[in-house]
Structures are given as C-alpha cells and as structure tokens.
Amino acid sequence: MMTPAPAPTLLARLLGDYRFAALAATLLTLPYWTSGFAKLFDLDAALGEARHFGLEPAALTVGLTILVQIGGSALVILSRKAWLGAGALGVFTAIATVIAHPYWQVADPVARFHERNTFLEHAGLIGGLMLAAILRGGKP
After folding, report:
1. How many other CB atoms are found less than 10 A from the CB of residue 92?
2. CA-to-CA distance for 116 and 113, rounded, in angstroms?
3. C-alpha 129 chain-centroid distance
4. Domain count, the chain
5. Is 108 left (phi over 0), alpha (psi -120 to 50) or beta?
6. CA–CA gap between residue 55 and residue 22 (Å, rounded)
7. Would you say the C-alpha torsion 93, 95, 96, 97 has a positive or negative sign?
8. N or C: which end of the chain has fewer CB within 10 A?
9. Is 133 exposed, middle or buried (0-12, 13-18, 19+ CB in 10 A)?
C-alpha cells in the first residue's frame, strides 16, 4: 500500500505545473478578456460607454480598449511577453479606475463606500498583474 505524498510535495508539484500557472493567468485576466469580447460583439454599447465617460474619439478609444483587453490578456495567459501584456492591462486599469470610480468625488456615503471598494479592488488587480509580469517571465 502506498502512502500519500506529503502536502508540501503535492503543493510544490501543483505550483510548478504550467497548467496551474495558465489557469491562474486566465482567471486573473478574466475581467479583461470577457469585457473585450463583450465590447467587440456589442460595439454600440461600447461606444456609448466611452461617450458616457467623455472619451472621444469614442471609436478610437473602444478599438484601443479591445486591443489592450484581449491582446494583453492573451500575452499573459500564453506567457508570451507577459510583462508587456500585464503592463498594458495595469496601466489601462489605473487610468480606467480613476476615470470610472472617483470615490473621493461622491457625496453619498453609501455610494462612496461602494466606489471606494471598487477602486481598491482594481488596485488589487494591478498588484496581481505586477506579480504576473514577474512570475510569467518579467525579463523584456
């Protein structure tokens, strides 16, 4: 009868598995690539969103957003110039977060609370993207 491998050995094997890393990268970039495809398949809504935030020319903004969201995600997931994909997604997230979630301008305490939480969640995504750039080949 074989005894099971100790947990640290199993954990080390899991952490060293490229499939586990690909799954982690896919989950980290999930908000981006799903949003990029949603924009691609509903350009009218994407253009409306860009105009809502005063981002003109809206068509250029939407095109660049789709490119960064889908292209950056693919680079991270496929571990091909992951530092570039993660960097592009991180810069995009920082800019979009300041534009869409300026909690410091919200007067209502409940709404401010929710906007601040969203702002901080996006900051956490940026941190995750920084780690992805490091762990998935941070050398240019």
Report:
1. 19
2. 5
3. 7
4. 1
5. beta
6. 33
7. positive
8. N
9. buried
Q: Could you tell me the two tokens for 58?
A: 């809206």
Q: What is the chain's length?
A: 140
The Cα 106–Cα 108 span in angstroms is: 6
Q: Side chain identity at 45, as an amino acid letter?
A: A
Helices within the chain (DSSP H only): 7-15, 18-41, 43-52, 58-66, 72-78, 82-100, 109-135
Asked, for residue 5, whether it belongs to a domain, the answer is: no
Instruction: Give the predicted TM-score (pTM) of the model.
Output: 0.88
Per-residue pLDDT tens listing for the chain (140 residues): 566 656 678 888 888 888 999 999 999 999 999 999 999 999 999 999 999 999 999 999 999 999 999 999 999 999 999 999 999 999 999 999 999 999 999 999 999 999 999 999 999 999 999 999 998 875 55
12: in domain: no
